[in-house]
Amino acid sequence: MQAYKGRDVDERDDWHLTEALHHEHGRGDPFAAAVRATRMPMIITNPSLPDNPIVFANDAFQRLTGYDRDELMGRNCRFLQGSQTDQDTIRRLREAVETGTDISVDILNYRKDGTSFWNALYLSPVRDDAGRIRFFFASQLDVTDRIDVQSRMAREKSRVEAEVTRRVAELRDSLDAQRLLLHEVDHRVKNNMTMIGSILRLQLREAADSDTADMLRAMMTRIDALATVHRHLYQSDDVTRFDIGSYAVNLASDLTQSRADCDIRIRADLGRAEVPAGQAAAIGLIVNEILAHMIRPENVAEGQVFDISSRTTPARVELSIGFGPPGQGDAEADPVYSPSGVNEQIISRLAAQTRTRVVWSRTDQGSIQVSVVIDKEIP
Predict the structure, then answer these.
(1) Crossing angle of the two packed helices 280-294 and 244-257, in degrees rounded to 10
(2) pLDDT tens sequence across 175-222
(3) What is the DSSP letter of 376?
(4) What is the pTM of this model?
(5) N or C: lower Cβ tally within 10 Å for the chain?
(6) Which H or E element spans position 119?
(7) Which residues contact 226 (CB under 8 A, 6 or more apart)?
(8) pLDDT, tens digit, 9 for 90 and up, residues 149-179
(9) Do the beta carbons of residue 327 and residue 337 sit within 8 Å?
């Protein structure tokens, strides 16, 4: 075991060493030959000697480090460490040797020519039959390419994360600016709607005949409907979409409250039914004309009910408004219950602009059913 002291350790000494490790197999042990011949760098150290020196190094280890056998024998492995070797990894290795435990680490080592390489080191104690540690066996593997790839990936990940953080901050600032802009737009539109409503009310007071007053009231209703569209659009989480179902229910509630002379109830069954914000005003006015026509004094009676439902299919958005009498209606009378005049013209023209179909029908029970179908844009 002291063969390396004072002279070169030749192949014969290697045999002596492996025979000492596996004396029961004798000099011809195939394991010894395998250790010497394998392409994996391997060394053996002796903890019973001062500073746990290297007592065996195969050819692969010499090729990996650039050191000859006589430069390796009798030295502690720490000479392979350098200025950039991680101190925590060194501490873990020292503790594994002191406690006699296995350890596997990636450690930065240095060759004889000063170049560095990442070493996937596996260290394990070799014990005799009594459990005493006779040697430490260590295998090495140059994993520089893997570590370099991991380092590049880590750097790229950090760069991407930093870029994402920067872009998120920019988007947050942009969203804050958009919120301020939307708030300003919201404020100005409300002021304009209020001003228009005030002008119409002034004209209504000066109306000389009932026809003019009715026209002004109809205009005020349409302005209020547009204000409701605006309120729904700019108070929603997504200002790019407009939910026609909830809008129809709110508008119907506003209109029925104006009829204090009779009790009109609203039943709603709403599914998600959103249209692009660009269609909101036009479709909102269509729904207003339908509801305003239905709720006219000559068309409603005590106890009547609005049934409003909405849903979305892959090809279209659908809104259904049912208006039924409290009792059984006459199925033969008035088979088509739809508006005429200005109401009809507004519905027709706005429907053509928004790919919308409005169908009026009467059920067998006498109720009026209006279907508003908005075709989606198919990419």
Answers:
(1) 40
(2) 777 767 766 777 777 777 778 878 878 888 877 788 888 888 888 888
(3) P
(4) 0.50
(5) C
(6) strand 116-127
(7) 193, 281, 284, 285
(8) 988 888 898 898 888 888 888 888 887 777 6
(9) no
